[in-house]
Amino acid sequence: MPVVRRPAVFWLALLVVLLSATACGNAGAGAARPAATASGAEASSATTTATTATTTAKAPSTGASAAVAAEGYAALPQSKTPEGYYVLGDPNAPATMTFYSDFI
Amino acid sequence: MVETEPQLIAQYVKTGKARLIYRHLLQLGEPSKTLAEASECAGAQGKFWEMREQLYRRQAELYGATSFAAVQPLVAELGLDAAQFGQCMDQHQFEQQVTADFAAAEREGIRSRPVLDINGTRIVGAQPFTTFQQVLDAIQ
User: What is the mean pLDDT of chain B?
Assistant: First the structure.
């Protein structure tokens, strides 16, 4: 069976292509995100598990977030607490996640 | 938090293991209040969660927003009644609601953002999904 010998320029070109692909991948991972600071110390809480004096709010992810949007919140139970706070999910679920935030 | 919330919804809310309650913080003053009111005005038309998601998606461009005009593009996008939404914003129909919510949050000891409280376990700041997962799985 004949052995195909490739010229050195072929291997050099292949190396350049591979290096370029690797560089592009890393650039995406380090993309800048809008930042917001969390100011002030957290007040005493019986079970505070993680506290950061300054945190970076991450930009909305397009993947998972889009998946929720595509399926629609309408498919999930929605209600309000007696105080008027919006509730997503089964009102009798064993766990209650209360999310405190603003939109900026 | 905004990145992990869709995972929390998919794995815990959709499966009936947890419910998610949203509380308004107004720590950045007027812009915070304007967007909080916008979410409530959308809620009056049954689109609170959808508006909330869009507001998060556009955080950068909405930074500093203090008027109805800033969120107007979202009104059509979400299929809201523009006249009704505009009236709601102009008349500040939910100003008292969001202000009272913020005051109550402060009384509950909330001093920074975002905060996720899971059955009394308070997690502050943007944390990886596994942090929330550990707390939630211990409850199930």
Answer: 94
Q: Which two tokens stand for residue B38?
A: 């916008």
Distance CA B54, CA B74 (A): 7
Q: ipTM score here?
A: 0.94
Rounded to whole angstroms, the Cα distance separating A37 from A45 reads 21
Does the bond joining B114 to the residue before it have cis omega, within 30 degrees of 0? Answer: yes
Write down the domain spans for chain A. Answer: 73-99
- Residue B107 backbone dihedrals phi, psi, to 5 degrees: -65, -30
* Strand duo B121-124 + A47-50: pairing: parallel
The share of chain A scoring above pLDDT 90, in percent, equals 28
Give me the total of CB pairs closer than 8 Å, taking one residue from chain A and one from chain B.
237
Q: Which residues pair with A87 in a beta bridge?
A: A79, B21
Q: Which residues contact B127 (CB under 8 A, 6 or more apart)?
A: A50, B1, B4
Residue A45 to residue B122, Cβ atoms within 8 A: yes
**Long-range CB contacts (within 8 A, 24+) of B68-72:** B68/B38, B70/B34, B71/B34, B71/B35, B71/B38
Mutate to test the interface with B, among A54, A61, A81, A101 (most CBs of B within 10 A): A101
pLDDT at A40 over 50: no
What is the DSSP code string of chain A? Answer: -PPPPPPHHHHHHHHHHHHHHHHHHHHHHT------PPPSPPPP-TEEEE--SS-PPPPPPSHHHHHHHHH-GGGS-EEE-TT--EEES-TT-SEEEEEEE---
pTM of the model: 0.72
Answer yes or no: are the C-beta atoms of B21 and A97 closer than 8 Å.
yes
